[in-house]
Design a protein that fits this description.
Two copies of one chain form a homodimer. Chain A is an all-alpha fold. The first copy, chain A, is built from eight helices and no strands. Chain A has a single domain (2-230), classed as Up-down Bundle (Methane Monooxygenase Hydroxylase, Chain G, domain 1).
């Protein structure tokens, strides 16, 4: 490959990576807004997340198209090809994080319309902040192709799962004690579930980074094995 | 591209497609077994699904690797390239259906160990059968690249969502009437949720088929628009 073509290829690749970061920033914003809307009963904020989900979808379609074009026109070598394919997978997870944020926002809108009082859903504040940070850090690891960071962030997912389990146990106890709280508790469970899935998708992004850099498929390796191999 | 190379390419592509069908068959079997294990309290069957999930993961890794190699060595044209990229996405969804089946199987195992009596989870029998059929038909549509079938199967997902909502309403009512049923009801809700997600993933596969054949991104188009465009 001549230097000229290689430079063009790199420029195109950088442009696509930048678009992934733009998409990631928008998705992160939606996660944060959806949680705030739910906890604070802010229907205007919730409406905005629902209304603007199409922007995330449009970015996914556009980036996907660009990746296909790059492969078709540039015919990249195996390692560059892996990077492009990794981007295609990353945006699929980002788009699905956007869907989960939209679900939380729709719930926030519905509850705000029902006139639920504010500060009702404080349980999800912590897990929401946790997965938003996971997503933010996963995007950072993607931008810098930082394997060490990626392994650490992927490990956070276990803590998110534990938080989720704790919320579940707490709510089941509450429902048993006070059956009138069942409908509300189920709503909290749905929101927590959506947030927990955002943790899963953020972990997927970290695994793509590790896979790409280490050239090894770690998607089905346990976390302990990963830590052993990459952090010790 | 010479006829010779083109024939080799087609043979490789057919081999990959066959592997996708093998993987799909295994995933379908896991969905069915997991549901049966839960409804009939069959811990041996549940154990088998959990133990053999690694086979699905291994198939995903192997097919993913083959797809990368085909693109790198054969440098397919835009339309062939789209097919290979579509296969990469399809196996990601199949792998995640396998994960959902594993979750249902783990729940079945746990409940069987707790000595829950059989026929406890009949509510999920119908939705389980529905999503298994959706997956089966989606794989058929993939094998034949049948857009008309794909649109119809994607439309089934709405019915699955409705079934899921009906199960939810029924269980919430039951929990309110009898708080002792809460833990059990939550279990049914988890299983139904996992099955509903299998419907989502099967719909994704159908959308890839439509996208590939129609050359249009239908992933973010509403079902009504799809029906209008492709069925009328």
């Amino acid at each position: 490959m001549s230097v000229h073509i290689s430079q063009q290829f790199n420029a195109e690749l950088d442009a696509v990576k930048n678009q992934v970061m733009t998409m990631g920033g928008l998705v992160e914003n939606h996660v944060q807004s959806a949680c705030t809307a739910l906890v604070e009963g802010d229907s205007v904020l919730a409406e905005r997340v629902v209304d603007e989900d199409f922007k995330i979808n449009a970015l996914e379609v556009a980036i996907d198209e660009q990746c296909t074009n790059i492969i078709a026109r540039r015919q990249p070598t195996a390692s560059d090809l892996r990077l492009v394919l990794m981007i295609v997978k990353t945006i699929t997870d980002l788009e699905r994080i956007g869907d989960e944020a939209e679900k939380v926002a729709k719930m926030a809108r519905e509850l705000a319309e029902l006139g639920e009082s504010k500060e009702q859903y404080v349980e999800i504040r912590h897990i929401g902040e946790h997965v938003r940070k996971m997503l933010h850090d996963a995007l950072d690891a993607f931008a810098r192709m930082d394997v060490t960071a990626a392994v650490k962030i992927a490990a956070e997912d276990e803590k998110v799962d534990q938080e989720y389990e704790a919320i579940m146990r707490q709510l089941i106890t509450r429902m048993m004690e006070d059956p009138r709280s069942i409908q509300r508790s189920i709503n909290v469970i749905w929101a927590a579930r959506a947030l927990e899935r955002i943790g899963d998708h953020s972990k997927n992004i970290c695994e793509y980074v590790i896979y790409l850099v280490k050239g090894k498929d770690v998607r089905h390796v346990t976390l302990d094995q990963m830590k052993k191999e990459f952090l010790e």
